[in-house]
C-alpha cells in the first residue's frame, strides 16, 4: 500500500488549560476524500488549522509523505503542497476573477525596472485552468464579488489545483449554499479527487459528505468518535452518530416517561 500524502496519529492541541483536540488520527491518500464531520465546537477548525500550518500540534504525530513534521506557517504548508480553502475564501470581491486567481503569485513579463504584470498570460491561464476543471464563467474580467457562492468556491478549488496542491483542505464549502450550488461544489470536489489530489472535506452535513467521501472522521468535543472507511458505515449510521444517537435515544426515552 502506498504511503499516505498526509497522516495524523493521536494528534492533540491545548490552549492553556483548554483541551481543543485530543487523540485524533486519520489519513489522507492521493485520489481520495477524507471527510471530517462534527457539530460546532467539535474540534474541526483546530484540526484543519494544524493541517494548514496555522497551529502546531502539542501531542501525537503529523506525517507528510510518511515523514514526521511540524509546519511553521501556512506558507510552509502551501510550499509543501497543502492548500486550504477557508470559508471566507480569502478573495477580494472588487477585483476580477483572474486577479484573485493569481493573488500573491502574479505572472510578470520583462525584467528590472521594466518588469510588469503579464495581464494577457494571467487571463488566458485563468480561463484555461477553470475550463480544465469544467468551470464555465462568463468573463474572467468580472469582479469575483459578482459570482455566486458556489462559483467562488469552484474558482478557489481550481486555483489550488493549478498551483500544484497535493492535499486540498476545504473548510465547510457548502455551509452557506443552496441545494443546487452545493451539488455543483461537490462535483468539483470529486473532480479534484479524480485528478489525484488528497482532499480533506470539513462539513457538518453528512448528506453532503457521503456521496463524495472515501473515509469519515467523526469528531465530538475535540475527541474522535472513530474513523470509518465508506464500506464500513451507512449514511443512516453516520447521521445517527453525528446527531448523538445514544444521547437522543436516552432523551426520547426520558420524554416518553415524562409524558406517560
In angstroms, what separates the terminal alpha carbons? 57 Å
Number of helices: 9
Q: What oligomeric state do these chains adopt?
A: single chain
Q: What is the total domain count?
A: 1
- Proportion of beta-strand residues: 25-35%
> What class would the helix/strand composition place it in?
alpha/beta
Order of helices and strands: EEEHEEHEHEEHHEHEHEEHH
How large, in whole angstroms, is the Cα Rg? 20 Å
Short description:
With 260 residues, the protein is of the alpha/beta class. It is built from nine helices and twelve strands. The N and C termini lie far apart (57 Å).
Describe this structure as you would to a colleague.
It is a single chain. With 260 residues, the chain is of the alpha/beta class. It has helices at 44-51, 74-79, 97-101, 119-132, 149-162, 179-194, 206-209, 235-242, 245-259; strands spanning 6-15, 18-28, 33-37, 59-64, 67-68, 82-85, 108-109, 116-117, 167-171, 198-203, 215-220, 223-229. The chain has a single domain (6-259), classed as Rossmann fold. The model has no long low-confidence stretch (mean pLDDT 85). The radius of gyration is 20 Å and the shape is globular. It has a 6-stranded mixed sheet, sandwiched between helices. A 4-stranded antiparallel sheet has the order 2-1-4-5, with helices on one face. Strands 7-8 form a two-stranded antiparallel sheet.
Amino acid at each position: 500500500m502506498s504511503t499516505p500524502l498526509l497522516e495524523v496519529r493521536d494528534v492533540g492541541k491545548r490552549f492553556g488549560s483548554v483541551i481543543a483536540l485530543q487523540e485524533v488520527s486519520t489519513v489522507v491518500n492521493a485520489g481520495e476524500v477524507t471527510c471530517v464531520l462534527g457539530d460546532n465546537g467539535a474540534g474541526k477548525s483546530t484540526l484543519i488549522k494544524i493541517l494548514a500550518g496555522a497551529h502546531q500540534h502539542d501531542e501525537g504525530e503529523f506525517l507528510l509523505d510518511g515523514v514526521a513534521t511540524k509546519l511553521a506557517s501556512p506558507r510552509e504548508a502551501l510550499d509543501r503542497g497543502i492548500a486550504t480553502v477557508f470559508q471566507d475564501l480569502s478573495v477580494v470581491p472588487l477585483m476580477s476573477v483572474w486577479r484573485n486567481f493569481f493573488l500573491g503569485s502574479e505572472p510578470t513579463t520583462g525584467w528590472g525596472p521594466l518588469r510588469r504584470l503579464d495581464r494577457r498570460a494571467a487571463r488566458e491561464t485563468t480561463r484555461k485552468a477553470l475550463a480544465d476543471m469544467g468551470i464555465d464563467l462568463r468573463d474572467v474580467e468580472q469582479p469575483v464579488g459578482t459570482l455566486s457562492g458556489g462559483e467562488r468556491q469552484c474558482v478557489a478549488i481550481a486555483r489550488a489545483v493549478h498551483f500544484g496542491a497535493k492535499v486540498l483542505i476545504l473548510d465547510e464549502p457548502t455551509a452557506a449554499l443552496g441545494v443546487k450550488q452545493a451539488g455543483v461544489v461537490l462535483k468539483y470536489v470529486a473532480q479534484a479527487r479524480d485528478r489525484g489530489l488528497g482532499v480533506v472535506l470539513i462539513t457538518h452535513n453528512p448528506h453532503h459528505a457521503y456521496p463524495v467521501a472515501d473515509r469519515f472522521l467523526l469528531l465530538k468535543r475535540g475527541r474522535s468518535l472513530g474513523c470509518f472507511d465508506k464500506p464500513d458505515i451507512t449514511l443512516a449510521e453516520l447521521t445517527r452518530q453525528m446527531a448523538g444517537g445514544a444521547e437522543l435515544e436516552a432523551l426520547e426515552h426520558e420524554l416518553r416517561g415524562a409524558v406517560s
